[in-house]
Design a protein that fits this description.
Layout: H1 2-43, H2 45-48, E1 61-62, E2 84-87, H3 89-92, E3 98-101, H4 119-128, E4 141-146, H5 151-164, E5 174-178, H6 181-192, E6 204-208, H7 214-222, E7 224-229, H8 234-237, H9 239-248, E8 251-254, H10 259-276, E9 279-281, H11 289-299, E10 307-316, H12 325-336, H13 338-347, E11 369-372, E12 377-381, H14 386-399, H15 411-422, E13 428-435, H16 442-454, H17 458-466, H18 468-471, H19 483-488, E14 490-500, E15 512-521, H20 523-541, E16 550-552, H21 554-558, H22 563-569, E17 573-581
Parallel strand pairs: 4-5, 4-7, 5-6, 7-8, 8-9, 9-16, 10-13
Antiparallel strand pairs: 1-2, 2-3, 10-14, 11-12, 12-13, 14-15, 15-17
Length: about 600
């Protein structure tokens, strides 16, 4: 009986071996087949898709010829044919917006095209990507906007298209990525609607990808110079995208405001990103470009021997801030993960702390609500990611006082980088929200109270996520802001610094104050998309002057670049308001707040 059982086991093992060999052979033939098929399609694009393409019904489909392959090599899918052409001309009111959808098993994943990609270009891409990461020069997409069909992604897409049409822009190709081709098409139609009847730029592509599918993300990252990730909450959906970019040597930008996510990916992926030449920069939107670039602008107005001790930012808006629900959701999870963040910091080896002249500000001796006398504003602490990001920037600067050298840095840029960072002195940094009336702080106080009490438990988080309007007194809701609400928005970010006229050598109390400010349009979406795309343009135009790879903050990467000048040209106003030297006990003494530079 035992021998019979053993024979059955041997038979099963032989069957498994034969099956594996057959499966390997089939997969190999599939790759060869799809390669030939895609080349055949691309060679016929000019004639088939881009010739005189008549406007047809949006549901019409056209099957393109492909080489023959036994039917057993096809896995069951919903399509009857391996390739289908979907015409979205009627939806977009433009004849040249089309989509080619390829099956998932193709080695280059799903590719959709609004123009053409030559067969020679595809052959070059495929050959370059056989082993290891593809070189930047061989990648077809300058930027990929992942989550382009989301609320923030739409504004990022619209901003990117402005520069795609500019002949002087380094941006030549853009891919919009997401799960739904139909929603990506709607995003593209919405984005071009502001161009007064103009046709969309020629080199716009749509690509199917899912943050839950690591294979599709890796395929996408292999084809992109820069991945812009607009899919949040990042602590749940962001790490897979970072992992794919790092593995493929693709640069990465996002608009995260979640410190736990940012410090976790730095801990897990920094070394690999350095090895593979992937530059990963989080928080390149509302958090924390205005705070970081605004702070660097502020610190350059402290002229030696004057030395700053602390800088407090006051965020002010004279209109209701347009905020999408996903931003609120990220804030809830950010609060909930505060303990995880502390564990990450304790698990890492200690890094040198910036040496700041003068005593640190007290975290407990000041009232929750304060009046800023110099600005005539009422303020309360704002627990956003800015302080955490600034702390990491200043820590990196302490480790590398000249900043981070570029992988192929020019002599002029290197000299400018060293000169730039020599003018930056570390400070204690904190953020506050400010209003003219003390009543304007009530939504923030309510939100802070309930976040603190409810975000740590699953039931509390469920309540916060289900009833945002209740807990924020109407500041947040599940209803998306309208386009008009977004376009009416504006913000002012004040930077109030205090320090010592003689560098702190003899003066015990701060006797010098510097005030600067940054003003711009709606912070949540218009400013966010502008600063993000400008970061991408700096990456494209100055890549050799930037660090070869690694996980860094935006300040340490973009500080010495022309990012501030670019932002100034695109609607953000940096201004030096005043510098005064006197006794500050009555004025600046009321500006201090619990600072998070070394704690958050």
């Amino acid at each position: 009986m035992g021998s019979i059982t053993r024979l059955e086991e041997l038979d099963e093992e032989n069957i498994r071996t034969e099956y594996q060999e057959k499966l390997y052979k089939i997969r190999k033939e599939q790759v060869e087949y799809y390669t030939r098929g895609l080349k055949s399609i691309l060679e016929s694009i000019d004639e088939t898709l881009l010739g005189s393409c008549p406007e047809t019904n949006s549901s019409s489909e056209k099957t393109l010829s492909t080489p023959s392959l036994p039917q057993e090599h096809f896995r069951p899918i919903s399509h009857k044919t391996p390739y289908k052409f979907h015409n979205f001309a009627k939806l977009h009111n433009h004849k040249n917006i089309t989509t080619i959808t390829l099956r998932a098993s193709h080695p280059l994943g799903f590719i959709s095209n609004a123009n053409k990609l030559s067969s020679e270009r595809f052959t070059e891409m495929n050959n370059n990507n056989i082993n290891g990461t593809m070189s930047a020069a061989g990648k077809p997409y300058d930027i990929v906007i992942l989550g382009a069909s989301g609320f923030a992604g739409k504004y990022v897409t619209r901003e990117a298209l402005k520069f795609l049409s500019d002949p002087n822009s380094p941006l030549k190709t853009v891919a919009l990525a997401g799960r739904s081709p139909a929603r990506l098409s709607e995003t593209l139609a919405w984005a071009i609607s502001d161009f007064a009847g103009e046709k969309p730029p020629p080199n716009v592509y749509t690509v199917s990808a899912d943050t839950g599918d690591s294979v599709s993300l890796s395929i996408l990252a292999a084809q992109a110079k820069i991945m812009i990730n607009c899919v949040g909450p990042y602590q749940h959906l962001g790490e897979a995208v970072v992992a794919a970019c790092v593995s493929q040597g693709c640069d990465y930008l996002d608009i995260s405001g979640e410190p736990e996510f940012m410090e976790r990916i730095e801990m897990l992926y920094h070394r690999k990103a350095v090895e593979n030449g992937s530059l990963v920069v989080s928080s390149c939107g509302t958090d924390s470009i205005p705070a970081e670039i605004g702070l660097l602008f502020h610190l350059r107005h402290w002229k030696s021997p004057a030395t700053p001790n602390r800088v407090v930012t006051y965020l002010q808006s004279d209109r209701k801030v347009a905020v999408n629900y996903s931003t609120y959701e990220s804030a809830v999870y950010g609060y909930a993960n505060a303990e995880k963040l502390m564990k990450i910091r304790k698990s890492r080896s200690s890094r040198p702390r910036p040496r700041i002249p003068g005593p640190p500000p007290s975290q407990y001796s000041e009232p929750v609500v304060q009046r800023q006398k110099l600005l005539d504003l009422w303020s309360v602490h704002l627990p956003v990611a800015d302080a955490s990001v600034v702390r990491r920037t200043l820590t990196t600067l302490t480790e590398s006082p000249d900043g981070l050298a570029g992988k192929n840095e020019s002599g002029d840029y290197a000299a400018n980088r060293r000169s730039f960072w020599s003018s930056i002195k570390p400070v204690y940094f904190s953020t506050k929200v400010a209003t003219k009336s003390i009543l304007g702080l009530l939504p923030f106080l309510s939100l802070g109270f309930f976040f603190d009490k409810l975000s740590k438990s699953p039931l509390g988080r469920r309540l916060l996520l289900n009833y945002p309007s209740l807990f924020s007194l109407g500041m947040f809701s599940k209803q998306r802001p309208t386009k008009e609400e977004v376009e009416r928005g504006n913000f002012t970010m004040w930077f109030v610094g205090e320090g010592y006229s003689d560098g702190g050598a003899a003066v015990k109390k701060a006797d010098t104050a510097v005030i600067t400010r940054l003003r711009g349009p709606d912070m949540g979406y218009i400013t966010c998309s502008r600063v993000l795309i400008q970061c991408a343009l700096v990456m494209l135009s100055e890549r050799g002057n930037l660090p070869a790879g690694g996980v860094y903050t935006p300040g340490i990467v973009f500080g010495p670049s022309d990012l501030q000048e670019r932002l100034q040209k695109n609607g953000l106003d940096f201004e030096h308001v005043s510098t005064s030297t006197s006794s500050l006990s009555d004025a600046v003494g009321s500006t201090t707040s619990p600072c998070l530079i070394l704690g958050q």
